[in-house]
Amino acid sequence: MTINSPRSNNRARRVWLAFLCLSLLLILFAIGLPGVDGGLAHAAEASTSDVADAPTYLPAPKLTAADYPTIKGVNSRIAVWLAAQLHLWFAAFVLAVPIFVFIIEAIGMATRDKRYDNMAYEFIKVSITAYSFTAILGGLLTFLLVLFYPHLFQYMSTIFKESMFYYALLFFLESATLYLYYYGWHWLQGEFRKWVHLSLGLLLNAVGTLLMFLANAWVTFMMSPAGVDPAGVFSGDAWAAIHNFLWNPINLHRVIANIAYGGSIVGAYAAFKFLSARKPEQRAHYDWMGYNANFIAISALLPLPFAGYYLTAEIYAYSQQMGITLMGGVFAWLFIIQAVLIGTLFLSANYYLWCGMGRSDGAVRYHKYIKYLAIVIVGAFLVWFTPHTLVLTNEELKALGGPYHKYLGPLGIMPAKNTAVNIMILFTTLSFIFYRRANKVATVSWASAGNAIQIALFTAGILNIFFLGIYHGYFTNTVYKVAASIPQVLTTLTIIVSSTIIDSLMYRGAKEVAPLHWGRVSDRSQYALFLLAVAFTWLMGLMGYIRSGIRQHWHVTNVFRDASPDAFTPGLGYAANVVSVGTILFMAMVIFVFWIADVSGRKTPTDAYWKTPSA
Amino acid sequence: MKMPRLLQAVLVVVGIYAGFILVFDYLLGQVIPSSLLSMYMFFVIAGVFMVYTYTEESARELVAPIKALVEDPGKKRLRNVVFIIVPLLVAGFTYQRMSPSFEAPVELRSIHPAPPATVKAYGKRFNLATLENPFRQYEKSDPDKFRALVREGGDIYIQNCQYCHGDKLDGRGPYAAGLNPTPLNFQDVGTIAQLQESFLFWRIATGGPGLPKEAAPWISSMPVWQDFLTEDEIWKVILFLYDYTGRRPRSWEHE
User: What ipTM did this prediction achieve?
Assistant: First the structure.
């Protein structure tokens, strides 16, 4: 298969071009599906030409507890909750992996370094079993919804019938593309075939993202319904229902979060393989793989708090009630857990980088700075999770003269949090810059000027972040306070981008003072990779619960009331326990996925078992 | 002689702990809550552990005294002492934490109750998402009228609210000491500055009994002011609250 004759190449080219055209047509068709984009036009035509034929929709049903089927011994809410959460964890993983596999494959093609291609293949191999789990759990979730919440499912499918139908069809395309992409990996090698393979990767990502956006529309419709009147009567405009207030904020947040999450899971896979490797070359390979996975996870983690802040600001803007329930009301303490987990992600990512500096003897030059990085990152982390509502004993309450703390209180609101998270991100970037420089010395004539520019950039940026956070956060009104987060983010992004560019130019053709020894890293650092994956999983579960829980006793906010016996907001401890059980289940399944990926490479000698063919 | 790294690490942790107490409890005169201090210290210890273990040599040096204590035959006496003292300390700590006391349990209280979508007051239903202060418009269109409304709001506040919320709006009125939780401090950056005027209208009009069922018990002694004040009077008081504290109500539009 490695020898390509021009004739077979031409034939393959024609087949693949036809396939790609068909697939793209299908996507375009799906984007313009009747009742979605096209539906708008049809609806407009219909309204002018033939109003009488327009379908009439019923209002959202008013249910009683008797309308919810039950099965003895099964708690319907927990069953749906766990199935949905497990489906989402796997879906996030299998949607994310092709994104960075595509990028790694492209890097491999650009550099002609086979190691990247091998790594990309190994990543996609891990996601194949996970893909089956995603589909199985998605099916289970649908069954459970139909079984336990039939009226809700019927109402949702009346509004989203087209998108649900095309979602199911797109799933075929997703599966076909994924299997072709994976099983065709070694077949589609070489000049033109490699481009075909890369195009398949692009198609896979396009279909996967479209699938997620469609599913996001159903979820966000339940939070911020659109295209229906206050009684829940559907207007017939499916695009309005899809393009509801929170759809795009969730789309953006989920795309970025999925990449970070996928990176952390494959990082855990690399750590698993590293710790179980027997040979030095295996340790070196999986160390390198873990490093790359961590790099992907952290690169996506850095902009994630901003996407999260945008989503939350939009939730506030949509409904004061939802916003306050989320961050000031009953769910506020889960946000403290969230802050702690996000801080844990930053700490473990930095620790992994610092441990990784041990791969090169040249890193000793930077050891003296690590403690200062740690002080700033931990300090910012403490501000990041300081709660607005303090838990006080009666004695403390008396000593303070009330529940308000003069100095800690101001740290409990968003301007302090935004400032802290920007500082954490900048110092994580510094950790990465030190890591990159560990084995090299810049040889360009302007190296000291370059360093001075970078120091000036960081200093000015940090001062600006503090000014924006303190002045706009505490001395102007709320609208400027919220708006100040944008220049803060832009400052951070400017510093990251410009210092990365300066550093790349400075270290172009740099002298290697001490080589990197892949595999020379402590086992402790690998546990930091595990911690990253577990913290991400738990975090997604808790935040997912909050996102769904802020609807409180509504199936569809203010439109369709939840009348089931479970239409109450569970206590924080109960919710945290359910999510923790889900996390353990997911981790067990992920370990199974890792093990299966490992088993596929094992071979047992069978000479004594099989009959030797006679000559 | 170089100080053992384990001792260094312990001293750093103890130093930071003592620093928190010194700065907050003594220098600033505002105690640091024990619940927060334990959270802080958990991550301080994690940070110290990270700094002391990111290189192999440092990690080895850190655990060397512990390893020696467990493995070195020459440290038998010290080992026996430590192996008795440490479990006793843990037992003593556990006993202290678990033994019943007369102290009232710690309360986890949300500062901002989540508002309902609509609220019933004065025999009408108000939509809190769209409800606006009818007098806010005069701030720009008729500043003199606006000042007069604020003054009226001030009078209403002094006649009705300052007994609890204080004449400086800092939650320290003459009756405040008798209430738990204490009345809201409007000067605090985390209270009215975070909220829309409709939220304040809801809280004032329906008082403690109008608080939502979630996150109960609220144990709020806020009266139901719709029984004592008119709708306009409540809006004027709200104007005064923002004017006196120099805060702006939460909004989504630039001014």
Answer: 0.80
